[in-house]
Write a structure and sequence with these properties.
single chain; 434 Repressor (Amino-terminal Domain); 108 residues; 8 helices; mainly alpha; 0% strand
């Protein structure tokens, strides 16, 4: 569990820095205590799903992005973020078509 919390903390710090936010700025946007952001980034606290949701929303990310493991450490996270951002506001029917096209593309 400790490694999971450290990974979560690294992801939050990375996304916060990408957004050019200080810990205080992120805390204000998320409506949580700035001290708690520091504890999370150091892997010292285990946040609730509600807190994760607030942080993700403040960073304009999906909660799942905070939890990405291998992609975050391999540098793929930027590309995954871009893809998720492109898909976020699509209709369900469009997502189905995109998923089918992606499956065809990846079969090559």
């Amino acid at each position: 569990m400790e490694e999971t919390l450290k990974l979560l903390g690294r992801n939050i710090r990375e996304l916060r820095k990408q957004a050019n936010y200080t810990q205080s700025m992120l805390a204000e946007k998320a409506g949580i205590c700035p001290k708690f952001i520091g504890q999370l980034e150091r892997g010292e606290s285990n946040p609730s799903i509600t807190v994760l949701h607030k942080i993700a929303c403040a960073l304009s990310k999906d909660v799942s992005r905070l939890l990405i493991t291998n992609a975050a450490s391999s540098g793929k996270a930027v590309h995954i973020d871009r893809i998720v951002t492109l898909l976020m506001d699509r209709k369900e029917s469009e997502l189905l078509d995109i998923a089918k096209a992606l499956e065809l593309l990846l079969r090559r």
